[in-house]
Each structure stands twice: as C-alpha cells, then as structure tokens.
Amino acid sequence: MIKKLYNTNTLEKSELIQVIKDNMDSLDPKLLHYAAKTREKYYGKKVFFRGLIEVSNYCKNDCLYCGIRRDNDKVKRYRLSKEEILNSCKVGYKLGFRTFVLQGGEDGYYTDEIMVDIISTIKNSYPDCAITLSLGEKSYETYKKYFEAGADRYLLRHESATVEHYNKLHPSNMEFEHRKDCLYNLKDVGFQVGAGFMVGSPYQSIENMAEDLLFLKELNPHMVGIGPFIPHKDTVFAKEKAGTVHMTLLMLALTRLLLPKSLLPATTALGSIDPKGREKALRIGANVIMPNLSPVDNRKNYALYDNKLSTDSEAAESVNSISKSIREFGFVPDFSRGDYIHWKR
Ligand code: 5AD
C-alpha cells in the first residue's frame, strides 16, 4: 500500500485507514524511505527558514484547545504596534530571513486599513521578502485586500475535516464549512495557502485523521501545518492527553506522500514535546522551520499550549546554531524566499 501511495500520491479512505492502523505501533521503514525520497525529488535536502512574528494574542474566538482563547482571562494580552512589527522584520532581515510570517489571534483591532498599511509597508521596505499571514477567518474582500497589498501566503489550519469532530473542538459559532470556504477563497485570491490540523486532539479517531488527509488531498494546499495537540492548563482541555510524536510523524509522512510538493514545517509543538522532534520530522519529509522573531518579552504570552518552546532552538536569534544542527542532520539550510515549487505570483 505504501508503494502504491508513493507511485500514485493517493489512496482510498479505507486504504488510508489501513495504513494508519498498520503503523500505529511502529513506523514501517518503507514509509520513512519513500517520504524522504519524495521530499528530495522536489526540494532536495533544503530546509526553508521563516521568521515568525506573533503580532497579537487577542482573539475573539473561543476554541476549546487554545491557550489564547477569548475566555482565558489569565492571559496577559498584547498587540504589537506597526513599529514593533517592522522592527522584528528588520532584525529578521539582518539575520537572513526572507519570509516573515505574521500570526495572531482574530484581533478586531486590525481593521483592513491598518493591516493593509502594515503589509504594504513591509513589502515596500523588503521587496525581496515573502509575507505570510496567519490571522484567521476573514471575508473574501479582506483576503483580496491583503493580497493586493503584497501578502503572498496565508496559513489557516482546517483543524478537523470531520464536522462532528470539528464541533467538539470549537464553540457553536464556528463552523467547518466556513473555514473550508475561507481556504478555497484564499486559493481563489491567489495566495499560496496552508491548511493543517493537530494530531491527537481530544476525541480524534483514526477515521477523523483519514478524513483530514483526504481533505488536504482535495484542497491541495501549498503548505500543511501538522503538530501534536498539547493541553493548555487554562482551557477546557487542560486534563486531556497530548498527541504523540509517533502519530505526528505518521501524519507528516502520509501528507508528504499525498502532496509531494507541499511545504511542511517541523512545528514548534513537535519540538516542544520532544527535543529531537524537529529532526525526526525533517527526516520523514518536513522541509520548513519557523523560528520565533517576536519581541522577546512578548513570546511567553503567546502560549497556545503549555511548555511551548520560545528560546534557543526555536528563537530566530539562534539562527546560526539552528543552521548548524540542520547541517549536522544532513540537510541544507536555505534562506531564500522558499516559494512552492514553480510558483508565480
Ligand atoms: N496544542 C497544539 N496546537 C495548538 N494550536 C492551538 N492550540 C493548540 C494546542 N493546545 C494550533 C492550532 C492553530 C495553530 C496556530 O496552533 O492548530 O491553528
């Protein structure tokens, strides 16, 4: 079945479920082999760097798993000013980053006007850089304005492609259908789009994971963010179990085989539950790394889950030592924009 997946880049739902079941205890070496081979076919040994700027932890949503959910009144809320964001870009540019990822909660402060101004200022200051946004669900018009202002990519994890499961992770005012519309709108506007999901989130079944993979296959995004669910102490899911490294690696490998050209980050969440997590992810087909460029004092407040890494191996200031480890793992740090292969705006 793995050979078939490698050759055709697709499987039926029942086959995907079988592959997941067959690899629950240990990963078939063939999976590792073919996933790594597939990544090499298009991107070689390159590992692309993105500088992550966590612009705001205000959020109007109340996702049950997320540490910065609206109802968590223990969070010290912050929002970066335009100057602070630009300063992070300046620091990042000097460190060599050519992609800036502006991520934040759904913060009503950022009207279209304010965001368009921020995006176009970054673009004018750093025309050789890509701008990625990760700011949640917006209207088609807003996405279009962001794109026209110079944003190139947009990350919006679908979180779960099974409606019943999606509903167990989100309050009733959030809907999978709407999220899906947003993802298709983003593609239509012209963005390089990223979807994705957490592995091992509460109530997630094997079938749910197969649905997530099939949804990714159908959407065919350029990027896919996959990391383990990790409980946060001040959320509804405080007492739930975290997802495992093993299952996360399995989902990464299957995603690499289903979407051979995708850009797949070795996520901070994975690095947070296993010091070797990112290395393992790179070996199984991940090819992106997103060190934190946010102002150091704000980092601890952008806690989506407990024990989130934000220093050393996750921090942009450590770019030299991160690059060194990547070389030691046998990969090649790449500081170009790192667009999706064959991408043209
Ligand atoms: N554990 C792991 N990932 C989380 N995210 C939010 N909360 C958690 C958590 N507790 C992920 C979501 C979101 C992304 C920015 O972070 O998938 O889309």
How would you characterize this protein structure?
This protein has 14 helices and nine strands. The protein is an alpha/beta fold and 345 residues long. It has a six-stranded parallel β-sheet. It is globular. The mean pLDDT is 97. The chain binds 5'-deoxyadenosine.
Topology diagram in text:
Layout: H1 2-8, H2 13-22, H3 29-43, E1 46-49, E2 51-56, H4 82-95, E3 99-104, H5 112-125, E4 130-134, H6 140-149, E5 153-155, H7 163-169, H8 176-189, E6 192-199, H9 206-219, E7 223-228, H10 245-258, H11 268-273, H12 277-283, E8 288-289, H13 296-299, H14 319-328, E9 332-334
Parallel strand pairs: 1-8, 1-9, 2-3, 3-4, 4-5, 5-6, 6-7
Helix pairs in contact: 2-9, 3-10, 5-6, 6-8, 9-10
The structure holds 5'-deoxyadenosine.
The site of 5'-deoxyadenosine has 12 residues, from loops.
Features:
345 residues, alpha/beta, TIM Barrel, 6-stranded parallel sheet, 3-stranded parallel sheet, 14 helices, 42% helix, binds 5'-deoxyadenosine
CATH topology: TIM Barrel
In round numbers, the mean pLDDT is: 97
Residue stretches low in confidence (pLDDT < 50, at least 5 long) are none
Helix proportion of residues, in percent?
Answer: 40-55%
Biggest sheet character: 6 strands, parallel
Summed up:
The protein is an alpha/beta fold and 345 residues long. It is built from 14 helices and 9 strands.
